[in-house]
């Protein structure tokens, strides 16, 4: 306990502390010898902890009401001019209950937060175990996370601390096993108290784990990736796979089976994160503009006999990692590595299916990213596609660093196409925030499109059904001298 905290407790008019439904407060027991004579005590007893609640809004509703009532009680003392000290285990702002009182009281009353020793610091000191060193990354994780997510995060970090144990312990231990971190994990119970215990996690009886416990997983100051063996003649096949646009149901059985058989997954971090962690799997996640570096890493691993999959969103062969892998593989040192590409559902297919069948006839696919090709090339291709009357799927229409390209592309298309050409804007298709919007070439506002969108620009014959679905006929009228009826965006002749 800090000197400042000790001084404030000794001069308080009111001492408040949280407890479970049993009424015993760990925070009070720590500070009991410091409480001044005659101090007013305000026990803040939770109405529910882990059990069911009869509140109409369930556990969250009961706890919100509890914090409202607690803040009101303490607010009355503060309004009367009394100094209130709230006792907190560990640090008030680190998974602490006080932060919810702070949200309610600090706008109305002067508030001072005194830092404390966190359970993470206490546990590592008790174990005399360096948690992170050099360039290790430390991740603090709640044990309430789902097992796959917890395992993924454990596999992707060096040092880790896992909070909120108790009834979550069996699931946490399973996540440690899947991440390959179980043997190095240490369980610390009641750190810095007389009841302190330090036990390897694999030896802990789950029935004995209290909430006041923590698991620490040390980093070791080194890259956790196993060293690559020297290149041999026994190169393993390198798999390049597409994960589809988002939902697990859109990942093909072939890709699922392939990922179950590899030891390394390489890719852009959001795509690597979609691969479920399991024991023995090593993950190599990186940023968005280092495709060749990723490809070389994967090829080097495969050349050494490691089983490797490079992952892409959508289909790896459509603006994905497949082309980057083949580009990197032109280096003679990788000539012995066989490469196999496994297809995935593309973003264009996903948006088209949601809309109906706008790509039901001939169509083109263009990326508006000019990072790897000049804008003049993109503009020329757009103009010829528009003149050929092809439906068009536009990838990468905008990003934080590319704000003008879509407006320029629309200017080209509007010169060659009718204003009422049907346009579908799909955003986050297949994910929770999915949206689909139908508009026209004339009405599309570039400001409403971001990096999560894919656009489908219809052909001249693309139309909408009375129900709002979009489709492009498979047939195109033969050229004759007779006038051809053109269909407008509503599907009616004009």
Structural features, described:
This protein is of the alpha/beta class and 494 residues long. 28% of the residues lie in helices and 19% in strands. It has 14 helices and 21 strands. The strands form five sheets. A five-stranded mixed β-sheet has the order 4-5-8-6-7, sandwiched between helices. A five-stranded parallel β-sheet has the order 11-10-12-9-13, with helices on both faces. A five-stranded mixed β-sheet has the order 15-16-19-17-18, with helices on both faces. Helix 6 packs across helix 7 (169-178). It is globular.
Helices and strands in order:
Blueprint: H1 3-10, E1 14-19, H2 26-31, E2 40-45, H3 58-79, E3 84-87, H4 98-105, H5 119-127, E4 138-142, H6 147-155, E5 159-163, H7 169-178, E6 186-189, E7 197-200, E8 213-217, E9 238-242, H8 253-259, E10 264-268, H9 269-272, E11 282-286, H10 291-303, E12 308-312, H11 321-328, E13 339-342, H12 347-355, E14 356-357, E15 363-367, H13 375-387, E16 391-395, H14 405-416, E17 422-427, E18 435-440, E19 453-457, E20 463-464, E21 470-471
Parallel strand pairs: 1-2, 1-3, 4-5, 9-12, 9-13, 10-11, 10-12, 14-21, 15-16
Antiparallel strand pairs: 5-8, 6-7, 6-8, 16-19, 17-18, 17-19, 20-21
Helix pairs in contact: 3-4, 6-7, 10-11, 13-14
Features:
alpha/beta, globular, 21 strands, disordered C terminus, 494 residues, 5-stranded parallel beta sheet
> How does the major sheet shape up?
5 strands, mixed
Strand order of the largest sheet: 4-5-8-6-7
- Number of DSSP helices? 14
SS class: alpha/beta
Helix content, binned percent: 25-40%
Radius of gyration: 30 Å
The coarse overall form would be globular
Subunit organisation of the chains: single chain
Strand content: 15-25%
